[in-house]
Amino acid sequence: MKMYTNSRQNSSPGVTKLFMATCRREFLLSFRRKSDLVNPLIFFLMVATLFPLGVSPEPGFLAQLAPGVVWVAALLATLLSMDVLFRSDYEDGSLEQLLLSPQPLFIVVLAKVIAHWMMTGLALTLMAPLLGVMLFLPAEGMPGLMLSLLLGTPTLSLVGAIGAALTVGLKKGGVLISLLVLPLYIPVLIFGSSAVQAAVTGLPLGGYLALLGALLALALALAPLAISAALRISISS
Amino acid sequence: MAEKKWMPRWFYQLASPRWCYQFTGKLLPWFAVAAAVLLIGGTVWALAFAPADYQQGNSFRIIYLHVPAAILAQSAYMLMAVAGAIGLIWKMKVADMVLKSAAPIGASMAVLALATGAIWGKPTWGSWWVWDARLTSMLILFFLYLGVMALNSAIENESTAAQASAVLALVGLVNIPIIKYSVEWWNTLHQPATFKLTEKPAMPVEMWLPLLVMVIGFYCFFAVSLMQRLRNEIIWRERRTGWVRELLNKQ
């Protein structure tokens, strides 16, 4: 028995290797289904288009609205993309294999979320200046917008993954996941859009970025635990 | 070696739904009487005998409803999260049921706190609602309750539903310190907390004493409605067991 566990431990890959392998798998899978990759970005763009049409096309007014609109659009786009995070793995049974494997689930889950963030949150961050220009956000606000999104969207992905893990076994997870996750997104939204507003008015934005970083650190440390627990609960039924 | 009894026997007996049903049955009338006496007495005292505020006049009297409801909304969440943790760690059925029963009561307390706050805000601040830190975080608390309730009703398997909502309740626990300290961290319209454990309240005794009575009365009322919901839940979940059938046949 002892021999067996020893040999298994020796042959099991290291944590970094496991992390990289999971990331690689996620990237491969997503690049083979490109529509899932592009859809949140298109949604992001469309939501931002709705505001000038729905509220007012007046540049001064839109510039005031821009930090909040870009942040809300990024938040909703992240939320929409969350539902697919575990669903295909759940449907083809590979999620069960991941849970049964002797490797630490914390690392697997963290790798999955980070890979997912790189394909949604990071892409949204890179696309955000385009939306900023569309909404007449002053140029001084751009670094604040990028930095706040860069620090805020990983938290959104981590928290959203908790909701995705809780609802993965349900047929109608879509609306429920937004109900569960949106209240938890509010602090990130508040600090994120305040950072952009501070950058626009020329105030120091270090404090807001520090708070976003603190939220990210908290989510990085604790969310994978909650996600793993939620996955185990969802699979057990 | 004799095992140390560091926990009273009745406590772990509560883990059995049957014992819990009988135990809460014995407690229920006492809490019901206490809640009725405290709430009626406190209301009369607060509305008729407590002195009026020198600035706000009689409109401040809504504090006797607002503060207890707000305190209860947060306490109910804490209870729900603790019950969820107990249910997750020790897989206790009764803890799952407590979580499920506490959520709607907590949600209604949050609604009551928000509604009375809005009614109070109109004469004192001049508007029904301000996007103030404490009001917003209370609203988030209400949304969290709704999320827990929605998740609980969406999953058909009872134990899975309870465990999933327990995880959600624990994640949402981050919000409680934010609500608690929002009035101290941010400079907001909302006044700081009325009661603190460490210092004397800023109001005169004739004002805060009825408030204290109301808070205790609300806690008793919460206990009564929680126990009633819990007993219903126990009967429903244990409906196939012998003792529930016997009980129902007797009635």
TrEMBL record, chain A:
Which keywords annotate this record? Answer: Cell inner membrane, Cell membrane, Cytochrome c-type biogenesis, Membrane, Transmembrane, Transmembrane helix, Transport
Q: Where in the cell is it found?
A: Cell inner membrane
Q: Name the source organism.
A: Marinobacterium maritimum
What Pfam families is this protein classified in?
Answer: CcmB
Membrane topology per record: Multi-pass membrane protein
Report whether Calcium shows up as a keyword of the record.
no
What is the name listed in the Swiss-Prot or TrEMBL entry for this protein?
Heme exporter protein B
| Highest taxon in the source lineage | Bacteria
- Gene label: ccmB
UniProtKB/TrEMBL annotation, chain B:
Query: Where located?
Result: Cell inner membrane; Membrane
Q: Where is the Cytochrome c assembly protein domain?
A: 25-190
Q: Where primarily located?
A: membrane
| Pfam families hit by this protein | Cytochrom_C_asm
Per the UniProt record, which residue ranges are transmembrane?
A: 27-50, 62-90, 102-121, 133-155, 167-187, 207-227
Provide the topology term for how it sits in the membrane.
Multi-pass membrane protein
Record's keyword terms, sorted: Cell inner membrane, Cell membrane, Cytochrome c-type biogenesis, Membrane, Transmembrane, Transmembrane helix, Transport
Domain of life, source organism: Bacteria
Keyword Transport found:
yes
- Reported function: Required for the export of heme to the periplasm for the biogenesis of c-type cytochromes.
Which family does the record assign? Belongs to the CcmC/CycZ/HelC family.
Q: Specify the protein name.
A: Heme exporter protein C
UniProt organism field: Marinobacterium maritimum
